[in-house]
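Readers of this paper often ask what the protein records in our data store actually look like. Such a record has a labelled line for the sequence and another for the backbone structure tokens. Nothing more is needed to write down the fold, since each code stands for a local backbone conformation. The record that follows is passed on verbatim for readers who wish to inspect the format.
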Amino acid sequence: MSLCIFGLFLFFVNEKSFADKGRKYYEEAGQILWDINTDEKVIALTFDDGPHKKYTPDILDILDKYNAKATFFIVGENAEKYPELALRIHEEGHELAIHTYTHPFRTNVSNLVKEIKQTHATIFGITGYAPVLFRPVEGQYTDSMIDAIAKEGYKVVMWSWHLDTFDWKSPGEKKIINTVLKGAKPGSVVLFHDGGGNREQTVRALKKVLPELEDQGYRFVTISELLEIQKLNKKDGK
């Protein structure tokens, strides 16, 4: 009896936490981006969980030094705490995107949509910019969530699976550096974090990753720029 109950528990947890439709379906539908196929040496750096009063300014300074543009998937309540940082991100040419309002690890569709709308309103209120991109917490989603997000007009953005730096675990700056430099290829999307904890390793790693990728000929673009390249490639039949 206890095994049956446990089995039902696992079924409902999995049913609520994961999508039945796979990556191929969502890429073809144009609803989720992981990375793009391109010969152009472009790479998209993304940062989750900010803005943070210490680490976000440090990261912005490094990006500015290398004329690198990035996409920041921000937590709405953090943007309300530090509106000047959300505004700086926008004014320095980076892309602001949504990563929920309170960063809930598990939620239902209606609450998720509410959090997205609340963060959208926060970003627009601070910057006048209307964000179009969303990244789910922990990268977890269901089919019903994707449908609801698409109906609201947002595109979901994940990351290249081999380019999750796991910097939130503080694995050491060398490991972060190696993950990025070994995994980088044209059209990749890299996952970093500028908030949610101690990000000293991320900051130190970026100081070495950016000049190295620059030397390799990479250009650092926002997610929307990456999507535009994807669109042009499809138009040209690439």
Summary: DSSP finds ten helices and eight strands in the chain. Residues 109-127 form the longest helix (19 residues). Strands lie at 32-33, 42-48, 70-74, 95-98, 133-134, 155-157, 188-193, 219-220.
